Amino acid sequence: MNISIETETWITIPILGGIPITDAVVVSWIVTVIIIAFALIVRYILLPKFEDIPKGFQNVLELFVEWVYHFCVDTMHEKGKELAPYIGTLALYLGLANIIELVGLRPPTTNLGTTFALAILTFFLSNYYGIRQKGALGRLKDLAKPVAIMAPINIITNLAQPISMASRLYGNILGGLVVMEIIYKTVPIFVPSLLAIYFNLFDGLMQTFIFITLTLTFISEATD
To answer: Is residue 114 part of a domain?
Structure first.
């Protein structure tokens, strides 16, 4: 049995000696295009038809938006409203990216580069909001709490946050992928169909929730 955890080159751009474009990048583009197309359809086709009393898809969409705003406000209070659009977009991207294996595509989050890029965004946002809230000096003072001798440990902890977030998401999604590949190769087809509900759907959505929760938590810690 041969199960590869390495990404594959799908496209090579014929410049600078050839730039390889991996499956993770291509599928990430697909996910992005789907989200953009969905947003355009909602904005220019569905939104003008929305009613004062929501029903059907409008109700689902409004429930999602309300949940995102409430979740952000519960975690970061009033500052959460500013982050809600980003968190909602991140949830849509990760949710779709993590479960896209259901249609036979490899999740881009099984590539460490993808998860690290998302974690780096969280790292910069947490430090940006921390500096904006307290100033650069105040942010540096935070790293020396509760006593100055803790500063090196706090700095290392801060720098380790994106590594931890990226590795957690990557490991969980890749683990589910490997397990499902083993199951596909060893048991009848109806069994993988049932297990995919957990390993592809439930676990993918759960990892999405964990990632956005950690994002809000780290930003909240930096601003408190």
So the answer is: yes
Q: Is residue 198 part of a domain?
A: yes
Any domain includes 215: yes
Cis geometry, peptide bond prior to residue 146 (ω within 30 degrees of 0): yes
Number of domains comprising the chain: 1
Q: Please check whether residue 123 lies inside any domain of the structure.
A: yes
pTM of the prediction? 0.86
Q: Are 185 and 41 in contact, with CB atoms under 8 Å apart? A: no
Closest by CA to 87, choosing from 198, 199, 209, 224, is 209
How do the pLDDT tens digits run along the chain, 224 residues long?
A: 444 556 677 677 667 667 777 888 889 999 999 999 999 998 898 888 888 777 788 888 989 999 999 999 998 888 888 999 999 999 999 999 999 988 888 899 988 889 999 999 999 999 898 888 888 888 778 777 777 777 788 888 888 889 999 999 999 998 888 877 777 777 766 666 667 677 778 888 999 999 999 999 999 888 87
